[in-house]
Specification:
Blueprint lengths: L2 E6 L5 H14 L4 E11 L5 E7 L5 E3 L1 E2 L9 E2 L1 H15 L5 E7 L1 H4 L5 H9 L4 E6 L3 H8 L4 E2 L4 H15 L1
Parallel strand pairs: 1-8, 1-9, 2-7, 7-8
Antiparallel strand pairs: 2-3, 3-4, 5-6
């Protein structure tokens, strides 16, 4: 199967895990496309300053709006998310062994976010690795069906899956 999903529970540091996973897979020689999220500090309201890193180029796209000191919670910057999506689309035109999408979240559930880019990767036959929070799995199944592999949040299992697919494609 060309798609693997890492289900995770709320509270698990999935962003750091996915970034570390991407680093390990790059070190193993895989050509990566896609994005991982970095949470680099705090907004005035106490939320993280979020950015998506394009794994092909290293460019970071800010995806959180600083709403000021009186704001409650973070707000996703749709423009930054769209820019990251464009970079993901560009990676599909090149030599890519694996696309990593940090997570299938609320925006994707709503039919937005990186949903189209995920589908595009699968349509061109590029394997996709994506994290999905447990409570979002039903919506993910509505989007993707059942044609995917579930992987634990364990580096060795993910590397084995990714390297196996890379060998099959070679």
């Amino acid at each position: 199967m060309l798609m693997a999903v890492i289900p995770y529970s709320s509270g698990f540091h999935i962003d750091r895990f996915m970034a570390d996973t991407a680093s390990r897979l790059k070190a193993r020689g895989l050509r990566l496309g896609g994005v991982v999220q970095h949470n680099d500090g705090a907004c005035e309201s106490g939320c993280f300053s979020m950015a998506l890193e394009d794994l092909a180029s290293g460019v970071r796209y800010p995806i959180s709006e600083n709403r000021g000191a009186g704001a409650t919670g973070c707000r996703l910057d749709a423009g930054g998310l769209a820019a990251a999506g464009g970079a993901l689309g560009a990676a599909l035109a090149g030599e890519t062994d694996l696309v990593i999408v940090n997570k299938f979240g609320r925006q994707e559930v709503l039919g937005q976010g990186l949903r189209q880019e995920i589908a595009a990767a699968l349509l061109v036959g590029v394997p996709v690795l994506i994290a999905v929070r447990q409570d979002v799995l039903p919506a993910f199944r509505d989007f993707a069906g059942e044609d995917w592999t579930e992987l634990p949040a364990q580096a060795e299992a993910i590397e084995t899956w990714a390297l196996h697919l890379a060998r099959l494609a070679a």
